[in-house]
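User: Here's a structure from my thesis project, written as structure tokens. My advisor, Dr. K., wants to see whether a designed sequence matches the one we expressed. Can you design one independently, without my sequence as a hint?
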């Protein structure tokens, strides 16, 4: 299992939201690149980056910061947030980002998703942000009418290889991840699933590894010290 320590960006700063609420934001660092270097020093090989302003408003408002993280860490970087057209996909991937994550666009523009997957294959991932059994869009601010199973079936049919699956109600809440959700989805569908939201202890990491999940994202638990990243990396190797 691959660990993806996370950096969420607003205004060039590393932040965390509580349950996706932009009004409940904690700033952890004015220099996210230093956090990326700490990830590397802890043995991490991958970084999960989200441009939260891009997720809310579209576009790439924090592109310079994202590229600084990639350049200074030289780790595998996947990026999500505001990627809603081929121009933005091309911009990130041609600049050296390893994988981009489509969220809102995967629901609202299937033609774009199919084109991106056809052109870039495994460098395209999709985010399944789940609120009460449905997929949320627009930076988690709106709930679509698409159920989790409908979404997974559609993504599998299109040829999406990787799905980042987030239980919004667990995100940043530090009360454990939704193990039953990931166990069910991993048994039911033939895609690589990355667990996101509520991964808050070594017990969570051990349980996810034991179900042979592709990946797990560590967010707030890293910043609060609830998970020692170095020990976590060692545990999944």
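Assistant: Designed independently from the structure alone:
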């Amino acid at each position: 299992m691959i660990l993806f320590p996370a950096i969420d960006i607003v205004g060039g700063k590393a932040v965390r939201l509580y349950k996706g609420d932009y009004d409940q934001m904690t700033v952890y660092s004015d220099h996210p690149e230093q956090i990326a270097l700490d990830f590397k020093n802890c043995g991490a090989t991958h970084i999960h980056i989200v441009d939260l302003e891009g997720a809310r408003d579209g576009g790439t408002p924090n592109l310079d910061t994202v590229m600084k993280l990639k350049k200074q860490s030289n780790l595998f970087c996947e990026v999500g947030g505001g990627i809603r057209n081929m121009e933005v996909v091309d911009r990130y991937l041609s600049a050296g980002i390893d994988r981009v994550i489509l969220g809102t666009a995967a629901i609202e523009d299937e033609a774009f998703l199919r084109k991106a997957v056809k052109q870039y294959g495994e460098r395209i991932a999709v985010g399944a942000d789940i609120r009460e059994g449905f997929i949320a869009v627009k930076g988690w601010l709106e709930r679509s009418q698409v159920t989790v199973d409908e979404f997974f079936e559609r993504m599998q049919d299109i040829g999406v290889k990787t799905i980042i699956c987030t239980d919004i109600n667990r995100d940043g809440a530090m009360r454990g991840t939704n193990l039953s959700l990931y166990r069910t989805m991993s048994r039911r569908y033939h895609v690589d699933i990355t667990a996101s939201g509520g991964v808050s202890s070594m017990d969570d990491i051990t349980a996810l590894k034991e179900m042979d999940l592709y990946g797990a994202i560590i967010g707030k638990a890293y910043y609060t010290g609830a998970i020692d990243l170095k020990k976590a990396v060692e545990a999944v190797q």
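When you compare it with your expressed construct, this may help: The mean pLDDT is 91.
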